[in-house]
Specification:
The protein is α+β, with helices and mostly antiparallel strands.
C-alpha cells in the first residue's frame, strides 16, 4: 500500500500529515543553536592634544589644569613643563611623589609598540632631557594608568603642545 493510501486508511488526510511535518520542521529550526558571535573589539585609544602653559600642572586622567600655587595639589597632578632659557627647551617635570616616567629618546609616539611599553624603565626621578617632537615620554600615574606623550611642540606663547593617549 502506498503512503497516501495507508494514511487515508488510517483516517489521516494527506494534507494534515504534510502540515504536521512542516510544523515539526519549523519548530526544529527555532531551536537550532545560534553560531557563536565574536565579542566586539576593545575601543581604540583616542589620541588627544593639549597645550599646557609653563608653570601649569596637568592631571592626565581628568584632563584638569592646575595652578602651581593652588593649596593641596601635592598628589592631584601628574606633571608640568619647565622652560630652560639657556637651552631654549622644555623639560617635563613629573610629580615625584606619585608619578613615574620613562623617557624614550628619539622614538616618536607613532612608533611605540607593546615591546616598548613592556621594556620601559620607569623612574620617579627628574629626567634631564628636553621633550622634543621625536621623543615619547611614558607616564605611570598614581592611579596606575600608563599614558604615552609625544609630538611635543614648544610654542612661542610659553606653552608646550603635545599629544597623549592611554596605553596601559
Amino acid at each position: 500500500m502506498a503512503q497516501p493510501e495507508r494514511l487515508q486508511a488510517q483516517g489521516i488526510d494527506n494534507r494534515s500529515a504534510k502540515a504536521d511535518a512542516a510544523l515539526t520542521q519549523s519548530n526544529a529550526q527555532e531551536f537550532v543553536k545560534p553560531e557563536p558571535v565574536e565579542p566586539p573589539a576593545p575601543p581604540v585609544p583616542m589620541l588627544q592634544s593639549v597645550s599646557l602653559p609653563f608653570a601649569t600642572l596637568f592631571d592626565l586622567e581628568t584632563g584638569t589644569f592646575l595652578d602651581r600655587d593652588s593649596p593641596g595639589i601635592t598628589d592631584a597632578f601628574d606633571f608640568g613643563f619647565a622652560f630652560n632659557a639657556p637651552l631654549n627647551a622644555s623639560f617635563l617635570v613629573q610629580n615625584q611623589v606619585a608619578v613615574e616616567i620613562a623617557f624614550l629618546d628619539e622614538q616618536p609616539l607613532s612608533s611605540i609598540s607593546a615591546d616598548d611599553l613592556e621594556n620601559a624603565m620607569f623612574t620617579n626621578q627628574f629626567v634631564n632631557m628636553p621633550a622634543e617632537n621625536d621623543d615619547t615620554i611614558l607616564v605611570r600615574t598614581s592611579e596606575g594608568n600608563v599614558f604615552a606623550l609625544g609630538n611635543f611642540n614648544q610654542g612661542e606663547n610659553l606653552s608646550v603642545t603635545f599629544d597623549f593617549l592611554l596605553v596601559g
